[in-house]
Structures are given as structure tokens and as C-alpha cells.
Hints:
- This protein has a domain at about 80-145.
- About 15% of the residues lie in helices and about 20% in strands.
- It has helices spanning about 80-95, 135-140, 145; strands at about 25-30, 35, 45-50, 55-60, 100-105, 110, 115-120, 130-135.
- It has a two-stranded antiparallel sheet. It has a two-stranded antiparallel sheet with strand order 3-4.
- The longest helix has 15 residues, at about 80-95.
- One of its GO terms (cellular component) is outer membrane-bounded periplasmic space.
- It comes from Bowmanella dokdonensis.
- GO terms for molecular function: penicillin binding; peptidoglycan glycosyltransferase activity.
- Pfam families: PCB_OB (PF17092), Transpeptidase (PF00905).
Amino acid sequence: VSDTRQGDEPKVAADIVTEGALVWVRFNDETDFWQLSQFPDASAAFIALNPADGAVQAIVGGYSFYQSQFNRATQAKRQVGSNIKPFVYSAALEHGFTLGSIMNDAPINQWDRKSGVVWRPKNSPEVYDGPIRMRLALGRSKNVVSV
């Protein structure tokens, strides 16, 4: 058995698999071994841009085209907030913030003087951590910190 995972070495079998878990395996003809062929629980997309000119360098639309032909990078509909956060955080880093900078993750109200409407951005789920390092806010996708 070969294990290429990163992180701490499993101590007991239950660290790898538990009773009732569905485990996908396949036989590898090249190595003559059975190997795990797990599909991740999460679905994600990735787009890499050239910082010099904004040109797309790479697009990954999902884990396995065989499993799903749906391209999450080009076909999924997302709210703009999820897409713009990397640019907001990049701008903050360019203006002197660091990943260790303390941000305030607390409910806020934004008043629109023209319309007279109060806008209250929220986290999803609606949990606020108060003072939080920028690295954690980005990792937890905190909407309020991005505002």
C-alpha cells in the first residue's frame, strides 16, 4: 500500500476509513496494486491569471471530467462576492496589509444616502469572529471583512 497524502501519519485504521464509508478503489495495471480512487466531497474551480496583463493562464473546471462534464469555472453561476474576494484581498496586500493584519469581522451597516437604504452585508453562515487575522478571514471567506 502506498500513501501519498500530506499531513500527520495515520495512527489507526479509523484515521483513514470508518465503518460504512464508501471507498472507491481501482486496479493499477502499471504498478500491479489496488489503489484508492476517491472523488473529493467538495467541488471547486480554479482560474489562474497573469498578473502582468490579466490573461488567463489556466482553467480547471472540476476534479474529474469523467465524473462530471460540468465546468465549474465557466458554467457555474456565482454571486459576484465569491469571485471578487481574491481581487479585494490582493488590493489590500498591495496597499500594506499583510496576511497577519487584524481585521474586524463584525456586523456592519452601510448607508446609501441616495436611496436612503441601509445595506447589511452578512457572512454565510451568519457567524462573526470579531478581530481576526486576514489569513483566517480569507480562508473562511468572510464576507463582512471583504467589505
